[in-house]
Amino acid sequence: MKLELRNITKKFGDFAANEDISLIVNPGEIVALLGENGAGKSTLMNVVYGLLQPTSGEIFVNDVQEDFEGPGDAMTAGIGMVHQHFMLVPPFTVAENVMLGHEHTKGAFLDLDAARSEVRRVSEAYNLQVDPDALVEDLPVGVQQRVEIIKALVRDAGVLILDEPTAVLTPQETDELLGIMRDLKAKGTSIVFISHKLREVQAAADRIVVIRRGRVVGEASPEATKAELAGMMVGREVSLTVEKPPGNPGEPVLQVSDLSAADLEGRPILRDLNFEVRAGEILGVAGVQGNGQTELAEVLTGLYEGEVTGSITMDGKELTGRTPREILDGGLGYVPEDREHDGLISSFTVTENLVLDQFGNAPYSSGGVLKSAVIDKRADELIEEFDVRTQGAAAPVSSLSGGNKQKVVMAREMSRELRVLVASQPTRGVDVGSIEFLHKRIVSERERGAAVLIISSELDEIYALSDRIAVMYRGAIIGVVGPDTSRDEMGLLMAGVTND
Amino acid sequence: MSVAEAPAPEALPEVHIVPPTPRLVKVLIGLGIFAVVVFGFFTPSGEDVTFQLALGEEALALPDLTLPAKISAIAFSAIALLAAVGGLFAARKERALWPYSTVFGIFFVLGFLSWAVAGSTINLVGLLQGSLLLAVPLVFGAMSGILCERAGVINIAIEGQLLTGAFMAAVVASLTQNAYLGLIAAPLGGLFIGLLLAVFAIKYWVDQVILGVVLNVLAVGLTSFFYGRLLAPNQETWNSPPTFSPIAIPVLSDIPIVGPILFNQNIVVYLMYIIVIVINVALFRTKWGLRVRAVGEHPQAADTVGIKVNSVRFRNVLLGGLVAGLGGAFFTVASVGAFGKEMTAGKGFIALAAVIFGRWKPMGALAAALFFGFADNLQSVLSIIGTPIPSEFMLMTPYLATLLAVAGLVGKVRAPAADGIPYKKS
Questions:
Q1: Looking at the partner chain, which of A51, A88, A476 has a beta carbon nearest the beta carbon of B12?
Q2: Mutation target vs B (from A87, A175, A291; most B CBs, 10 A cutoff)
Q3: What is the pLDDT of residues B126-172, one digit of tens each?
Q4: How many C-beta atoms lie closer than 10 Å to residue A384's C-beta?
């Protein structure tokens, strides 16, 4: 099926998320839309899928102009979409999810048998193994994604839009997905593949269209170098590697022994962890999301609500059983995974967020009264030092871009004398320019002699920063390896496969 | 290293997980022990307790059952305890618990009655028949709550819907001297409140809890105003509705015990049976139900497959208003026979409790409403017989039970994921 966009513009108020975008996807072609977070890729695809209506411009499917008032119209026209955040109802079965919106009925009742056999038919035809009676909430994300693809295929989608499909997958699952995409292409399905990951775009696409700030800035072939693609994406030359002097680890600072944790219902979440991080060393924690990394960070910072056994020491002092306040004051810096919820108070100003950890201490307040002159001065210094792009120190932090929000969090945490830095997904949803900067700051903490623990589901980031890499699987550390470990081996570890 | 021979995830220290004992079972066992000890100890020996098993008008009446109170208190409580222990084993094998909790409930109550009624007589059939009647508005209210909340709109306004329904039924039935016309007018009263709820909650994203409270106040204000100005001064014309009399269903109503309780009731009760069954089937077996549940759990997912989220919600809130309004008719044209100021007296809130206690399932809410109706009736029956417990404590039961349910004491209570969250398109 052929999809053509002509001069699509989508405005939200004065802000143009898409400006004058034209794009052709030929039958059986895989076109990658490459761009940074916030470049307007998802907005464009939501327009194509009928979730948003374009301010101006036209959409043609097989050379027929279409006007989508809702996703229903787009589906009828043969467009299917797999969203970045899955659009599946967790307590429903696979079959119920697949038939939702175009239900089979027998008389007045749902015909679940027909739905089941439809799921089986499609999953066999495209080699997507899925049990139609499984509850979606029990399925791993990789399988949930296949359910999404099945959902599109049973509706005879001729054009499939995949929005950041690999963000939640293991490297193996990603390979499987790329295989599925090739199968679909061979059967004539056109695919629009949205991503900001250069490697995957190169592996999958026939043609790469680069979007920056809502505009198409160019096309590239998959043979282009990564540096070329990144340059197009960001609009200037970027260095994709982190400059890191050889490590010189000192004494162990953070020591974790026999650490286990269970959630409030008694299910084991962390199993018997043992590791240490030395002064001047970066330990990367790799793993597919949901294997206990989030909880590990919470346990280290005293935020975890379940039961914790074992010991964590920082410079020999026990941390378990202490409050987050005591742990932070003891010299631990924490960059939480979800900065919007856990790292910042959105409605507070940049200044207020920058002193959130210390406003009660001298010199920022005395006798319970804030000293705003001191606070403002400190905030200005930090904004300068961390290159926070803001309309002003008094602007609410919610008005900042993802990268600048993260700089605020990082600036606040690093403004204390840190012995240990725990950073969870430090560059998730952050633009390439800010990633460079944030990585540099993390490395400089290491140079200063802090013990750094990086938790990330982006393998590139783990490789770029780590001196050693611990891989987590189902709450356990399944292996600790060097940064020279091959991606294949790493992928197997992340899937729980060890070689001994 | 090769993938084929590498040990699978089993290489990890696997913990064999014994299913944890559900809190419900623990609570039941605790209650069972409590019953054996307290009811057994405090029941005076030498007294008898008499259970009447018929109303006296049946063709096939069972004889009265007279038992030594102390022994029956201990025996019934012990059977309840056994059922609870049986539940423990069922839980180990991951079998359904409800048969055990039902048996527990029946014998716990019998043990309790043996103690509370010792030395006197209680009519079980009358007790249960009255319980059902008290539960009727609760059931209608709870169905309204389920219709709204399954689609993702919190309905605190059930109380107001019952009240306007009761009011409309009374006025229309009085003016026309036709109870059936009252029954048709009542849902329209509920619909009016439902419409306000739908418009403000869905269209204008007003906080649904605050909105519900406000609508209840509005319903009280409006009906009280008309009651004071119109109904009270002109009782004859405006507030003397004819009421429905019971219709005995042939054959079924002759079954001992069950017959008079379930099948010798008025039309509103029969309508209730139908509505509960229809909603239960529709919610879980039809296209409509699938879409409603999808909208209540994950509205974005429903939207992306072309379901109009806010239309589904709007429709369900209106339907809920109709159902609760119909339930309101029970007060005036099936039970009391006149409208009274604020006559719903908090039943709408107990209905809300039944929704939660019944885990947003029609059958669960029905069971919860029946339980609350039973507690209510038991309280009034016992206060007539004269018992050791203050009746106010019995009246607390529904709220206490709901509090325990919400606190997770009887297992996980999970509302529809998008309940109370307006759906705004970005």
A1: A476
A2: A87
A3: 999 999 999 999 999 999 999 999 999 999 999 999 999 999 999 99
A4: 10
CB nearest A474 (choices: B9, B291, B294): B9
Domain tally for chain B? Answer: 2
User: What tokens were used for A349?
Assistant: 């100003």
Q: Could A108 and B308 be called an inter-chain contact, meaning their C-beta atoms sit closer than 8 Å?
A: no
pLDDT digits (tens, 9 = 90+) for B94-109: 888 888 988 999 999 9
* ipTM (interface predicted TM): 0.84
Domain that holds residue B35: 23-119
pLDDT in tens, A236-282: 777 767 788 888 889 999 999 999 999 887 889 999 999 999 999 99
Which residue from A12, A66, A21 is spatially nearest to A45, judged by alpha carbons?
Answer: A21
Residue ranges and CATH numbers for the domains of chain A are 3-234 (3.40.50.300), 239-331+417-500 (3.40.50.300)
Residues in chain A with CB shorter than 8 Å from the CB of B8 are 496-497
Question: Is the peptide bond between A363 and the residue preceding it cis, with omega within 30 degrees of 0?
Answer: yes
pLDDT of residue A443: 94
B400 interfaces chain A, CB cutoff of 8 Å: no
B9 touches chain A (CB under 8 A): yes
The phi, psi pair for B104, rounded to 5°, reads: -55, -50
Cβ contact, residue pair B7, A497, below 8 Å? yes
| B6 part of contact set with chain A, CB < 8 Å | yes
Q: For residue B368, what is the domain's CATH number?
A: 1.10.3470
Cα-Cα end-to-end distance for chain B: 49
Identify whether B194 is part of a domain.
yes
Q: Provide the number of CB pairs (under 8 Å) joining chain A to chain B.
A: 103
CA–CA separation, A482 and A29 (whole Å):
39
